[in-house]
Amino acid sequence: PVRLTHIKLAGFKSFADPTVIPTPSQLVGVVGPNGCGKSNIIDATRWVLGETRAAELRGESMQDVIFSGSGDRKPAGRASVELVFDNSDGRAVGQWSTYSEISVRRVLTRDGTSSYFINNQQVRRRDVHDIFLGTGLGTRGYAIIGQGMINRLLEARPEELRVYLEEAAGVSRYKERRRETENR
Ligand code: ATP
Ligand code: MG
């Protein structure tokens, strides 16, 4: 399977300096004192996948994800997050399937310009969306279970629950394609 091998952050929230977070196995625990940046790592993964709702990232505006300075450190000019996936068995779908490593990166500058890259090639937000569709990973996927998500699932109306089930079953990919075809 396509597996996340590491996350690179720079200028994102509390990660002022370039930081590499290795994810060496299927299960990775992050521990540390309150405020050390654990949840910021989760915010970073949601963000690079295309999250556009600042509130979902615990901010008021999107620029709040850029390191805002501290003590003697100047604020950063931009935030960058990169997810690096191992695809040595070629399980990824679409045009990237032949690459042994797939990198997905998002950069935001203070002027509000957001750019996405797949393997250093600039792409659209929806290309990033596409590559993860049906994998459970994605801003509305179930792979990242935030606080309150379990409650949301338990209290979900049947139609909402169905969206999660279809994503889990890998059906959403095809439904989206069909919608697009019908709208043409
Ligand atoms: P807890 O155990 O309490 O859940 P945590 O490890 O999850 O803590 P985070 O919420 O990830 O902590 O990190 C919070 C820290 O990140 C705070 O100190 C906050 O000031 C800092 N932070 C958030 N956004 C920025 C930013 N844009 N620039 C600099 N620091 C930031
Ligand atoms: Mg936290």
TrEMBL record:
- The lineage's top-level taxon is Bacteria
Record-listed ATP binding positions: 33-40
Q: Which residues form the RecF/RecN/SMC N-terminal domain?
A: 4-136
Q: Where in the cell is it found?
A: Cytoplasm
Describe the protein's quaternary organization and the partners it interacts with: Homodimer.
Q: What is known of its domains?
A: Contains large globular domains required for ATP hydrolysis at each terminus and a third globular domain forming a flexible hinge near the middle of the molecule. These domains are separated by coiled-coil structures.
Report the family membership: Belongs to the SMC family.
* Role: Required for chromosome condensation and partitioning.
Name of the protein: Chromosome partition protein Smc
Organism expressing this protein natively:
Orrella marina
Please state the gene responsible for encoding this protein.
smc
Parent-protein start and end of this portion: 19 to 202 of 1195
